[in-house]
């Protein structure tokens, strides 16, 4: 088993759509793989949050699996987990 880490984010509404999350996550990813020698970097988003999904895809993350009932806002919310190898 290799070295794994997770990255998460939250940004307030006035800052949506400015590319700030993509820029920050790309830099975190670069730093993590270059200096921390990670094997995997994980990121999650709520299934109905297409903007977060697209931001993660821009940063090189790929869909991995669905997490049910873990840290969800309600019992009907699903988290999807992405990985960047």
Secondary-structure blueprint:
Blueprint: E1 4-6, H1 20-35, E2 40-46, H2 50-58, E3 62-68, E4 78-84
Parallel strand pairs: 1-2
Antiparallel strand pairs: 2-4, 3-4
Could you characterize the architecture of this molecule?
There is one protein chain. By secondary structure, this protein is α+β, with helices and mostly antiparallel strands. It is built from 2 helices and 4 strands; from the N terminus they run E-H-E-H-E-E. Strands 1-2-4-3 form a 4-stranded mixed sheet, covered by helices on one side. Helix 1 links the parallel strand 1 and strand 2. The longest helix is centred in the first third of the chain and has 16 residues, at 20-35. The two termini are 13 Å apart. 14% of the residues are buried. The model has no long low-confidence stretch (mean pLDDT 81).
Summary?
Helix content is 29%, strand content 28%. It is α+β, with helices and mostly antiparallel strands and 85 residues long. The protein is globular.
- Would you tell me the overall average pLDDT? 81
Q: Please state the structural category.
A: alpha+beta
- What is the CA-atom radius of gyration, in angstroms? 13 Å
Order of helices and strands: EHEHEE
Helix share, percent = 25-40%
Top keywords for this entry?
alpha+beta; globular; 4-stranded mixed β-sheet; 28% strand; 85 residues
